Amino acid sequence: MDVMKALYDVALDRKANPQEGSYTCYLFSKGLDKILKKVGEESAETIIAAKNGVQEETVGEICDLLYHLIVMMAEAGIPMEAVEAELNRRREKIGNLKVMHVSDHET
């Protein structure tokens, strides 16, 4: 989480102190719709890379997705600590087996 927190802090700084030529500042200037569009695009690219089985490409797409999620969080005012707390809560949860539906078995 240290690297993600550092990236989040940079995103917050870019939002508060725009810098010319910064891609992060460009995303903030275009607003939430543009940021969410990029999250969707990077999600699809991550899925395709994983399906294709090329680890280096998949890692790159995961990083792109995480970056755009961090920008989304900064735009929406979601603190990194909230995500970290929720992940810790889920990690400590015992017995999280979900009931599978018939359709889940077909995919």
Notes on the structure:
With 107 residues, the protein is mostly helical. It has one domain (2-105): MazG-like (Helix Hairpins, Orthogonal Bundle), CATH 1.10.287.1080. The chain is 78% helix and 0% strand. The chain has six helices and no strands. The protein has helices spanning 2-16, 23-30, 32-52, 55-76, 80-92, 102-105. Helix 1 crosses helix 4 (55-76) and helix 3 (32-52) runs antiparallel to helix 4 (55-76). It is globular and about 50 Å long. The mean pLDDT is 92.
Measured as a percent range, the helix fraction is: over 70%
> Beta-sheet strand percentage?
under 5%
- Low-confidence segments, given as residue ranges, are none
Radius of gyration: 17 Å
Mean pLDDT, to the nearest integer, reads 92
CATH evolutionary superfamily: MazG-like
Which CATH class is shown? Mainly Alpha
Count every helix, treating DSSP H or I runs of 4 or more residues as helices: 6
**Could you tell me how far the N terminus lies from the C terminus, measured between alpha carbons in angstroms?**
32 Å
In short:
The protein is an all-alpha fold.
Could you outline the blueprint of secondary structure elements for this entry?
Blueprint: H1 2-16, H2 23-30, H3 32-52, H4 55-76, H5 80-92, H6 102-105
Helix pairs in contact: 1-4, 3-4
List keywords for this structure.
107 residues; mainly alpha
